[in-house]
Amino acid sequence: MPFNKSVFVTRSLSALVFGAIMLFGLFGNDLVFTIIFFIVNILALREYAQLIEKILQTSFTNNEKVNLIAIGIFIFVWICSLPITVCTNNLNDFLRPYSFHLLGMTIGSLLVFFLFKKNAKSIYMLTGIGYISLALALLVHLRYQSNLLPMMLIFCIWMNDTMAYISGSFFGKIPFFPSISPKKTWEGIIGGTLFTIALASVWGYLAKEFPMWQWMVFALLASVIGNAGDLIESKLKRLAGVKDSGQMMPGHGGALDRFDSLLFAAPFAYLFALLCMSCLQVHFF
Questions:
Q1: pLDDT tens digits, 173-227
Q2: Contact at 8 Å (CB) between 84 and 142?
Q3: Are 41 and 248 in contact (CB under 8 A)?
Q4: Taking Cα atoms as reference points, which of 171, 204, 203, 205 lies closest to residue 190?
Q5: In this structure, is residue 219 part of a structural domain?
Q6: Is residue 225 helix, strand or coil?
Q7: Residue 20: which domain range?
Q8: CA dist 221 → 90, 139, 152, 271 (Å)
Q9: Distance CA 156, CA 272 (A)
Q10: Is 3 exposed, middle or buried (0-12, 13-18, 19+ CB in 10 A)?
């Protein structure tokens, strides 16, 4: 494929903007982090609705789209407000008094949207709320546990994708899941996972904030569950007959394209951290 300067510049600029926003969220405080993924939640739900419209060859009314996003917002904020971590934080303390009201609005919205519409469309949408809003809320709780954890989770996912691509390019022969993602190979998947675990072990040895074995398990979850998330989103796009889920990042796709692995990995990482890892907030500056 010939080099296209315009496409290269567009992809580079959008990647720089996206990277700056993510770094701002990761190194900022809890509120900044939550606001960024609050926005991601809305963007991802909107893209998910568009995919389902194409898959089911139907269309949602404006009221249905508004209700879907409203439910996703209520669930995201409500779960963020719940005391489901052992760690204290100011954001959780601020939101907790509104938990009952948020729960009431969530249940009311769910009844309006689903009670009288027991069809495939409603089932797909309910699944999407769990797939997106629940996962991102648990990512916020992972941040409550330690600001290092979502940073390392995202880095491990990125490292796994990068090393899987490199390993697959050099050694890939056996297709991993050709019906969904023809370019992925078993050699790439295994190489990406092993490199990511190795990197996490080095980080655990040098950083000392958590035991090495915990970082290694964390990396394993990011790699294995992250790959599953990537395949699920690829399957949705294939069913919908589209290349990208949206245009959030020109040249790179939409919110679901950027956070597909994270959406699946975050709940598992949160459960592992809750059960096995201590509360630890690190001051970067």
A1: 888 888 788 788 889 999 999 999 999 999 999 988 899 999 999 999 999 999 9
A2: no
A3: no
A4: 171
A5: yes
A6: helix
A7: 15-276
A8: 28, 14, 12, 11
A9: 15
A10: exposed
